[in-house]
Amino acid sequence: MLDMNFIMPTRIIWGRGCVEKNADRLALGKKALIVCGKSSARASGALADVTAALDSLGIDYEIFDKIVENPPVEVCYEGGRKAIASGADFVIGIGGGSPLDAAKAVAAYAADPELGMMDIFTANIEKVLPIAAIPTTAGTGSEVDQAAVLTIGSGKIKKSFKARDTFPKVAFLDAKYTETMNREYTVSTALDAFCHCVESYLSPKSTTISRMFAMRGAQLIYGALGDIAEMDRNVDLRLISNQREPLLAGACMGGIAIGTTGTGFNHPLGYNLTLYKNIPHGRACAAFMGEYFDYNSRDDEGRALIEHFCGGLLGSPDEVAENLVNWADVNLRLTDAEIDEYISNVKGAKNYANSPYVINEAEMREIYAHLFQ
Ligand code: NAP
Ligand code: FE
């Protein structure tokens, strides 16, 4: 059945030198707060391009570079206070998903000084400063979706928020900014993007349009990951450079797809591996791909969607899952007590309902035990 419901209000500007060539598109206000991490915004060259563009437009800015991986809500709140104190009227996020998500939270706090730190998860947020997003990883697609994933509870729980205006107004996609990523992060962020595509494709909320993005994004990413897997592990990063554009485009398409649907159960189950065991987000999600296919195949519609999706990748479901799990390469041993704690952290997530087959708590335990005991 056709379903053409769709919204994605972010202007995407693509290609080498796109910030410099389209500097005027950065002019979302009179003063910017640039939100980024400690090193990658500088190392990738993106920060220098952005500040040069702002200088050329005569737009003032300050830099908040305290964002760490899996951004804690406290740091985002501090960024919001800094935006208010500096008089910023728009926000530019530069970096991987962590700074881009943090920029959305900063933009919400800055637009409403009354918003308390934890209100962001419950309040109906009407005001958000305009956001420009510049990804330096090819993974989360945060540059084109509404969601921001923050960390709460002493860093052991992930919680997302979104508001109508947390969609960035503009996203600049220049693959050269991703070239400084090492092989591990290149693969891990690509695996995240692939998970977005498949989890979106299977979601009951998917539409004809979101499935087009999910399928094409998955094809681009799967092809690039296959090529990278065939290269020597110590390969010079420049040899991966042919994969940078397909990966960035595929990740963006995955972001557009989950903007319509949200993600499935690989995400909450994976969050624990990241927050307790330091497994990067994409590898953590992809480790569950075999189980994701197995459980969803128990539903007729789920099985048909998996076959169609994998057919689009010219592989069987078993082959696709095996490749994903090998590329994720997560080798962990978990105790019963660890599994109990993990499940209590994520059993309330909304993601479980977002798959053809809805797993229950006992099945979450089965999945962790099967993979990691
Ligand atoms: P990230 O957490 O933003 O960054 C991971 C690491 O990579 C950081 O050390 C970062 O350095 C470094 N890095 C980033 N770009 C680089 C570059 N070009 N060269 C060298 N190093 C670079 O990674 P991510 O995987 O993109 O984002 C993961 C986060 O996004 C998680 O918190 C996840 O929950 C969230 N997420 C959000 C969505 C969404 O829909 N909004 C979807 C999926 C995941 P710096 O610290 O210096 O920046
Ligand atoms: Fe993700």
List the helices and strands and how they pair.
Layout: E1 11-14, H1 18-21, E2 31-35, H2 40-43, H3 46-57, E3 60-64, H4 73-86, E4 90-95, H5 97-111, E5 131-135, E6 148-152, E7 157-161, E8 170-173, H6 183-202, H7 208-230, H8 241-261, H9 266-277, H10 281-286, H11 289-296, H12 300-312, H13 317-328, H14 336-346, H15 361-372
Parallel strand pairs: 1-8, 2-3, 2-4, 4-5, 5-8
Antiparallel strand pairs: 6-7
Helix pairs in contact: 4-5, 6-7, 6-8, 7-8, 9-14, 14-15
The structure holds NADP nicotinamide-adenine-dinucleotide phosphate and fe (iii) ion.
Count of distinct structural domains: 2
> Which outline best applies?
globular
Provide mean pLDDT, rounded: 96
Compute the number of helices.
15
Main structural class? alpha/beta
> H/E element string?
EHEHHEHEHEEEEHHHHHHHHHH
Helix coverage percent: 40-55%
Output the CATH topology of the largest domain: Dehydroquinate synthase-like, alpha domain
**Major sheet attributes:** 6 strands, parallel
Which molecules are bound in this entry? NADP nicotinamide-adenine-dinucleotide phosphate, fe (iii) ion
- Could you tell me the number of beta strands? 8
